[in-house]
Amino acid sequence: MYSPICSVYTLLERKVLGYIQIRKGPKMVGFWGIIQPFSDAIKLFVKEKIILHGSNQFLFYFAPFMGFFLAMFIWFLYPSNFSVKFICWGMLIFFCVSALNVYAIMLAGWTSNSKYAFLGALRAAAQTISYEVSLLLILLFPIFMISELSMDMYSLFPVSLIFIPVSLTWFTSTLAETNRAPFDFAEGESELVSGFNIEYGGGGFAMLFLAEYANILFMSMITVVIFLFSTNFFILVLQSLMVSIFFLFSRGAFPRHRYDLLMNLCWKSFLPFSMSVLMLLTIFVN
Fold first, then answer.
1. How many CB atoms lie within 10 A of CB 137?
2. Angstrom distance (rounded) from CA 114 to CA 105
3. pTM of the shown model
4. Mind telling me which residue stretches traverse the membrane in this protein (predicted)?
């Protein structure tokens, strides 16, 4: 279910970036280019699989599957009016599964037996682990306010209306966590050719990017659930789509950041800010 949605999101990204750059984007395959993502998927998955000399072959093919599986599994947490499940510890599951994503990228870079892929994987690991700390501390803010770990309860409390800087810091951290521009250093085309996925082609490449887009959509959804007011499932979907479009606007509007400034932003700006907010919150709550 989520794979076609991620494929359509790639079309939306190419269309939005096209109009930002005063061009049309995909428009030849089907009406308005609507069949383009599916033709790309068919082309990628039927391509010949190339076995790299010197690579760890089992882990090389396991890494895209792992990343794709984790990206699909975490969607088990989405809140819905039509769902019969109720997960009491949804936030803890989110912390655990999102922390495992870095292993898929590290495996993809290390098992490729390529210097560019390994450098991209090291960049991604340092960036992802750093901003996981930021995300965790920011998420403690709504958790302390609502005293609830289930995502099904958060949509009733618009935290962003209470403290807007926290939600802005959260959105910037999600850009870095999902390796999106202007923080896409794991896929630095200008210096790393393509980063951790340089040796992947065909189905493996498609699974890695489907996992990335699934994570973007999930981060958009959890942003709406925690920081915005959502009364039912359809409003949640529309708000998540709007937040995901901001991911595309940031790619079209900003150039790539410098890596050392990105790490300084996390450890010297976001970390002190989020800890200060938590200290103030504990004072007011008590």
1. 19
2. 14
3. 0.90
4. 58-78, 84-108, 129-147, 153-171, 192-210, 216-249, 261-285
